[in-house]
Amino acid sequence: MKGDPITEALFRAAIAALGDEMALTIYRTSYSGVLKNIMDYSAALCDAEGRLAAQGLSVPGHLCSIPVALKAALARYGTDIAPGDVLAMNDPYEGGMHLPDIFVFRPIYAEGALIAWAATICHHTDVGGRVPGSNASDSTEIYAEGLRIPPLKLFRKGVADESLFRIIEKNVRVPERVLGDLRAQLAACEIAERGIVELVRRHGAEGVRALMAAAMDHSERLTRAALAALPDGEATFTDWIDDDQIDAGKPIPLVCTVRKRGTDMEIDWAGSSPQVKGAINNTHSYTAAASFTAAICVLGTEIPNNDGVFRAIRVRAPAGTIANALPPAACAARGLTGFRMLDCCLGALALLYPDRVPAASEGGNTGITVGGFDAARKPFIYVDFLSGAWGGRPWADGLEGNTNMFANMASFSVEVIEAEQPLEVLEYGIVPDSGGPGKFRGGMALSRTWRMLAEEGILQVRADRATHRPYGLQGGAPGTPSCNMLDPGEATERVLPAKLTMTLKRGETFRHRMAGAGGWGDPLARDVRLVERDVCEGLVSEAAAARDYGVVVAGEPPRVDETATAALRAQLRASRAPYPAVAREALPEAAE
Amino acid sequence: MSGSLRIGIDIGGTFTDLVAIDASGEVRVRKVASTPGDYTQGIMAGLAALLDGAGATVAELLHATTVASNVLIERKGARTALITTAGFRDVLEIRDLRMPRLYDLAWQKPAALVPRRLRIEVTERMRPDGSVAVPLDRESVAAAIARLCAEGAESVAIALIHSYADPAHEREVAEAVREALPDVAISESAAILPEIKEYPRTSTAVINAYVQPVVRTYLARLEEKLAAAGIAAPLRILQSNGGLASPEFAAHFPAHIVESGPAAGVVGAAALARLLGEERLISFDMGGTTAKAGLVEAGEVLRAEAMEVGGGVLAGARLLVGAGYMLKLPAIDLAEVGAGGGSICTIDAAGAPQVGPESAGAEPGPVCYGRGGTLPTITDCNLVLGYLDPAGLAGGVVRLDRAAAAGAIEARIARPLGLSLAAAAHGMLRLAAASMMRAVRAVTVERGRDPRDFSLLAFGGNGGLFAASMAAELGIARIIVPPLPGLFSAFGLLVADTEHHLARSFRTRVGEAEPKAVAAVLGALTAEADARLDAEGFAPERRRLAFSALARYAGQSSEIAVRLANGQSLAENFSEEFAHAHERTYGFRAPAGEAVEIVGFSLIARGVPEEARLPERLAPAEADAEQRRSCWFPDSGWREVRILGRRALGAAAAAGPMIVQEYDATTLVPPGASAMRDDFGNIRITLAKADRNAEET
Predict the structure, then answer these.
(1) A539 touches chain B (CB under 8 A)
(2) B-interface mutation test, from A124, A169, A345, A408, most B Cβ less than 10 A away
(3) I need a surface site. Which of A166, A239, B258, B299 has the fewest CB within 10 A?
(4) Segment A66-75 mean pLDDT
(5) Whole-angstrom Cα distance, residue A393 to residue B100?
(6) Which chain A residues touch B557 with a CB distance below 8 Å?
(7) Cα separation, A314 vs A234, whole angstroms
(8) Which one is predicted more confidently, B563 or A566?
(9) In this complex, is the C-beta atom of A557 within 8 Å of any C-beta atom belonging to chain B?
(10) Same structural domain, B510 and B602
(11) Residues A500, B122: Cα–Cα separation, whole Å
(12) What secondary structure does DSSP assign to A210-263, as a single string?
């Protein structure tokens, strides 16, 4: 059936606006900073069968997780769904992602029939388990990770299930926040219902069904048109997670094969590590989210996210691997794996489409939690995420001080941390000489240093890229590794592992330096003016300018010595091998 | 015109609008070309034309200017430095990390207004309670000053960690800089924004420093030229918050006037709402490239606590931040979408129609302008359907080529979609209306309001063309198109009041608040407000102070302003008042007993004028002879439609379709709607309430 193109376009605009209104409703009504600052939530509209029709602006990491979860809920309840029902769930082994992500679904009825589903997912501050924030990377079973909710009815025909609410209330550390955020999810579903009912009034139930289907077809056509414009090919890329904190020092390989033929793409994770002991195992839906994010980055950003996109791009992940774990694998800290999968999938795409893909980012965010009791024995929990460097791009330098693509996260204000937590922040800034040199260099790392002011607290850090550096591409160098340090600059200074759980005592300081991002292209081909600017800005030292770029910069303000630079570059070209197409290690020192 | 005139001057990118009003309410207007090299030239030319033969003196000049925002958009500010606490020079650049576009590998964040080289650290440290952790190191200050000098900085922002708690170190640094470098402009962060959160405060101070020398020079030049022209009337500048301020204040705190231009129209809308007794009004301002919606409730404009400037217009900007420069000062809350007369209509890769976000702008402009544009725009669609006069805009200055517009729409839209020319053009207008509706929904639905409870005040060159179809889609029954719709922002200046908005951080739980400490904060706010209004020449009896507490449920991460009913302290039932405000804003309240915390206090200090500023009516211009033109509507196809001037519109409702054509704007009254002119001179359009599907094709 060919519909009216204007009506279809108006309908797409209407459901896109509705998806955004749902997301905004969560934004303005939620309690926790996790949702407000970190935007770790999503909202969507699905059709009666659970297919994604529109997704509000939110976190890429939730792409397509909603239809998977909704289908699991529908499988459990079948036709036992009635107006006024609300379903909730978080079980990774029955449609969920990891326990802090609670899904809430509400069926929308009009003209006596089920028309659509309002769907929301929020990362909750805490869902119980052995550590505050329910995010530990060193749990080894899901049973340690918190309250596990299979698809259940939170409301039946408009009546709240008190037992479920009370179980939630008693199993989380901050019930007022969790319940407050659940209310925000319910409010978003209500906004969706109002909007869909209005659309049905206008187009009829059948009309809305047909228009939702047309919206999906439209996205499928756009996706396939973008795919058709790319050359066919197949490429496999491997990247590594340093370790899972349990088997410390044992690298975990991720292997991604991208096959592109005609108007279809397949992203296959066969060959990736078996599932691991630590809590960084993915569900298939989270692997899919990372895969789709990489594909959309390359295809273009203007395609409305719905089922149509997923029809043209298939994601395969063998069961029992870190990309599709089986119970009871722990998965609370699987965010790390998602970030690395994005690096890995982009790496495969870079082999196919080198002019479209940047070198590796900083590797994703670092999660830092400090918990304990302050002087008045009041408990405190500080949860922060740092991210911030993009790889060099085929057309421009990588960004620094900018969120990782996979999670559009904000950083916490230093002043707010100090006002609310028994912590002092000594420093927060850009680390010079940390971005991988390249024709277009990688973004510089960020560093933050805290001092403990309470008697003591438990410090947990989930970092990575300490032993496997962000790769450079096309002759660009890798970024510098990440580093955790106790008491930097003092006699007691020592380097700590990337993932750790330890007691921080009063007066001790902890510094986390993120990895620098990878560079793109030969550093010796970098515009000398850009090197001069970087030296001027204090981002690249004079020594590094000479060593990495063959550019001689000196004076105040720093200026390039053109003659000396030409000579040095010629000498370096003659004496050192260029970086390989994918660079994971620094080059050996140039021969004299 | 006679006696003494009050004159509103609104500078836009293309035109400078001037509206003068005399004591009897008679109005005279002028639209002259803006002179971007030196905007004062355009102003003086406009004033000369306006005053020519008027035989009147000028009582007051009220000015909205885009000078400050242009400096940010074009990145043409002063060579600016930043002095900050050791360890934090990159706060300005790291921002809050977030980006406004998902999946966009080409995203380029706006370069920091102060390059890293000019971000200079001094050794000092305050604690959150204002106590000193590390005393200010004089040697590091001296080194910073030497650096400023060596780098040739023209302006410097000083933003130290926790300076909101005690600005002593910032002041000390400022003193030292002032003494050593008297020509360098100085912006102290705590003097501009004494609030917690280092990034917004630093960014706001830097914006102030960056635009200050330019704004100061501009205002000085304008005052000089006015004096030379013999105009001794006081000049007042509109701030982003909708209040007027003295040129001295604007020159000192130019960060307050960055969004001066867009604010003026909403101020006019609020004044009109008070006059007409409209409790709930949506202001809708549509020009050539963007459409902006604002909210007026009970005569008060809706304000935002922060904005981003210089980042352009982005869909979803309310969720996805980071496109522009963070300015955390109160501003009239406007939702803006990139849809206007110049928006380009295309067919996407899937064969579906799409309007915008690209715009043909002023050059080459729509196809019908005949300036080389080949891509059909919204203006072309309006022309082809008969809604715009082929004889042209602005009284025939620009002639419009209907055949060229029709050819482009036919070839690029109608044929690929398999639609008639008219159906295709009309479809594009509906798509444009859909994107503009997002702006209206942003200030209503997204804030828990139902647009159906509101009237729509439409202005700007294109506002009246789209008001009826948009209102129909949104379920709004009543539309008001004010007199001088194309110059309404300049008119708004005439009815603005002097206002100063102040705020201070203060953290406490309700119930644990120390009355003495609260009184001290409110007292400090009062003292500052009094000083500012005193400098503006308002005697104590003409000052109105309205205090609010910035409050939230404990655990929430953003707060809302709750008016302190008794003026000077936290009332016993403050928690209940907060819950009420929370419900109004967000649509729900937490269970009783949930702790409420306060994070600060704010104050709006208003200087009340001695006389009412809004006239009782605005007389419409002389009417042109009534014409007829063939126009197309979805249900009835082509039909002859009355084209009339505002003056010809009577006090009794007349049935549409009709088009009210004026010098500066066109208003479309579609079939099924009716229109009349009210006592003030507004066009009032009423839509048949049940007719919400009228626009279905």
Answers:
(1) yes
(2) A408
(3) A166
(4) 95
(5) 19
(6) 31-33, 36-37
(7) 14
(8) A566
(9) yes
(10) yes
(11) 34
(12) HHHHHHHHHHHHHHHHHHHTSPPEEEEEEEEE---SSSTT--EEEEEEEEEETT
Residue A313, SS3 per DSSP? strand
Q: What is the pLDDT of residues A98-125, one digit of tens each?
A: 999 999 999 999 988 999 999 999 999 8
Residue B141's CATH number? 3.40.50
Which of B381, B407, B432 finishes a domain? B432
For residue B87, being part of any structural domain is answered with yes
Within a domain: residue B656?
no
> Which of B432, B447, B472 corresponds to the end of one domain?
B432
Interface ipTM: 0.94
Q: Are residues B511 and B428 in the same domain?
A: no
Nearest chain A CA: its distance from B118 CA (Å)? 8
Shortest CA gap A179–chain B (Å): 10
Residues B424 and B509 in one domain: no
Residue at token pair 């550390």: A173
The two tokens of residue B544 are 């109105």
Orientation angle between helical segments B421-443 and B402-409, nearest 10 degrees = 90
> Given CB atoms, is B625 within the 8 Å cutoff of chain A?
no
Closest CA to B191 of B162, B171, B172, B169: B171
In terms of domains, do B421 and B503 share one? no
- DSSP-derived pairing of the beta strands B4-11 and B57-64: parallel
- Does residue B324 lie in a domain region? no
pLDDT digit string (tens) for A395-437?
Answer: 999 999 999 988 878 888 999 999 989 999 999 999 999 999 9
Cα separation, A542 vs B232, in Å, equals: 58
Task: Give B 638-667 residues with CB within 8 A of chain A.
Answer: none
Residue A375 C-alpha, separation from nearest chain B C-alpha, in angstroms:
16
- Give this prediction's pTM: 0.93
- Contact (CB<8Å) A36/B557: yes
Q: How confident is the model at residue B312 (pLDDT cuts 50, 70, 90)?
A: low
Span A226-267, pLDDT tens digits: 999 999 999 999 999 999 999 999 999 999 999 999 999 999
Q: Which domain holds residue B410?
A: 343-432
Contacts of A219 in chain B (CB under 8 A): 350
For the segment B260-279, the average pLDDT, to the nearest whole number, is 92
Residue A38 has pLDDT above 90, yes or no: no
- When divided into structural domains, chain B yields a total of 3
